[in-house]
Q: What sequence folds into this?
């Protein structure tokens, strides 16, 4: 059977599959679908060729990648964090997250600790296993990220907060940008990359993304880039900065856009859903080839 036909057959049956070459490529993981029928589509990156799919997930939300390239997928309905090897379709670990509505995750590059956000706050699993320590300083937490030194940053409501390495509590950052909604956060190079809400609030309005310099408890914007979208903006959708690109769901999760980073502007490429199955996606992550 030709490879294209084999891929179509897998997709129609809703079974998990992965192309043999996937393990040797940088991969974009796109989490979407609903309860009981959730999935993660896997694309070569940045070529955007569909190379696999993981099925049978229950409302998958955020994703994160550890230092070996393994991917963690957070399921919102079951409140679990599930680990998959780069290019693999079988779960190699599953952790139960305390609280409810597990949302997103990040891996500490210095320790391998796994942080997961939810309505209670942030739960941190030492070495991504066992029983976590949960921090409930500010309640509901959304996206989170570690910097290269093991400091954890999280979005809690409209606040940017930090759990300094070795600390027992989060602090509120003095963020110089007065935003009514902070939507994303990721550490990249020397900066914290923070996503904000479009100024006009209208569909298709550019979405601001800030490069933020951190010094102590002060977070200062050093550059603002605008992600231009042609349709609805991507409310509460995860972005991922990889190399000189940034990728995020747009059009209410029905498309995945790739922009130049840190230039922003119009997308370099759009990945559209095909057939009856819409993306309806929240989480994206890039796992580099080993």
A:
């Amino acid at each position: 059977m030709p490879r294209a036909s084999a891929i179509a057959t897998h997709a129609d049956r809703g079974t998990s599959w992965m192309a043999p070459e996937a393990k040797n490529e940088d991969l974009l993981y796109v989490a979407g679908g609903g309860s009981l029928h959730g999935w993660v589509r896997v694309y070569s990156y940045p070529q955007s060729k569909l190379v696999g799919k993981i099925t049978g997930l229950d409302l998958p939300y955020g994703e994160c990648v550890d230092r070996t390239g393994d991917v963690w997928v957070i399921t919102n309905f079951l409140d679990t964090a599930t680990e998959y090897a780069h290019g693999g379709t079988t779960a190699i670990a599953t952790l139960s997250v305390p609280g409810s509505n597990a949302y997103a995750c990040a891996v500490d590059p210095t320790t391998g600790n796994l942080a997961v956000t939810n309505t209670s706050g942030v739960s941190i699993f030492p070495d991504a296993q066992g029983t976590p320590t949960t921090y409930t300083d500010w309640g509901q937490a959304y996206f989170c990220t570690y910097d290269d030194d093991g400091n954890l940053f999280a979005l809690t409501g409209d606040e940017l907060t930090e759990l300094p390495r070795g600390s027992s509590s989060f602090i509120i950052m003095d963020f110089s940008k007065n935003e009514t909604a902070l939507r994303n956060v990721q550490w990249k190079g020397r900066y914290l990359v923070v996503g904000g809400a479009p100024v006009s609030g209208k569909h298709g309005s550019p979405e601001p993304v800030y490069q933020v310099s951190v010094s102590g408890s002060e977070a200062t914007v050093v550059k603002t880039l605008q992600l231009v979208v042609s349709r609805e903006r991507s409310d509460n959708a995860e972005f991922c900065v990889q190399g000189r690109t940034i990728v995020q769901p747009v059009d209410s999760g029905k498309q995945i856009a790739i922009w130049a980073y840190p230039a922003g502007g119009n997308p370099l490429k759009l990945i559209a859903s095909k057939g009856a199955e819409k993306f309806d996606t929240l989480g994206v992550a890039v796992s580099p080839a080993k």
Q: What stands out?
A: The two ends are 30 Å apart (CA to CA). The mean pLDDT is 87.
